[in-house]
């Protein structure tokens, strides 16, 4: 009976995933389109488990983090988090009203995590700038449409997680200027000088 109920609750999201079809993945380094074209060609949608919260990303993310830090492991209850870094105004809320929850991190800091008020699934978070969202990759309708551009905090990576050699990995963090594509750096500059 419980199982039946669980399946009913999950069905809307699962059906949504099935309707989407295969992902069209383009390597980010070859992306030379300007923002307008990019925004039209690469929108992704996602949401929470109960279907109340739905969002659309107006463009590709700036960069995709796979974070293996202890905070992310605790927050997700898993081995790592996939974060799509994207301008806050490019995360379009289609339905629902995610509520921010201040979550304690190591070092006495707090991080805001937006959750569906009903099923409490976390859809995105904010670290420092309110202009930048960290969208949780697992909440996309098609999670396979993104792959990490970088692995960070691998010092606490679980030993059975293997990182492909083709993807940069860092014990702690990295230099944005050295790693981000030029188009993303331009977007970041536009964000900070707004
Ligand atoms: Zn929900
Ligand atoms: Zn982390």
Which labels suit this protein?
binds zinc ion, alpha+beta, 7-stranded mixed beta sheet, 10 strands
Briefly say what this structure is.
25% of the residues lie in helices and 26% in strands. It has helices spanning 2-20, 35-41, 70-76, 176-179, 182-192, and strands at 44-47, 54-57, 63-67, 81-87, 91-95, 99-104, 110-115, 122-126, 132-136, 150-152.
SSE diagram, text form:
Layout: H1 2-20, H2 35-41, E1 44-47, E2 54-57, E3 63-67, H3 70-76, E4 81-87, E5 91-95, E6 99-104, E7 110-115, E8 122-126, E9 132-136, E10 150-152, H4 176-179, H5 182-192
Parallel strand pairs: 3-10
Antiparallel strand pairs: 1-2, 2-5, 3-4, 4-9, 6-7, 7-8, 8-9
Bound molecules: zinc ion (ZN) (2 copies).
Main sheet properties: 7 strands, mixed
| Termini separation | 54 Å
Describe the global form.
globular
Which strand order does the major sheet show? 6-7-8-9-4-3-10
Mean pLDDT: 85
Bound heterogens, unique: zinc ion
Please give the share of residues in helix: 10-25%
In N-to-C order, the SSE pattern is HHEEEHEEEEEEEHH
User: What is the C-alpha radius of gyration, as a whole number of Å?
Assistant: 17 Å
Tally of helical runs: 5
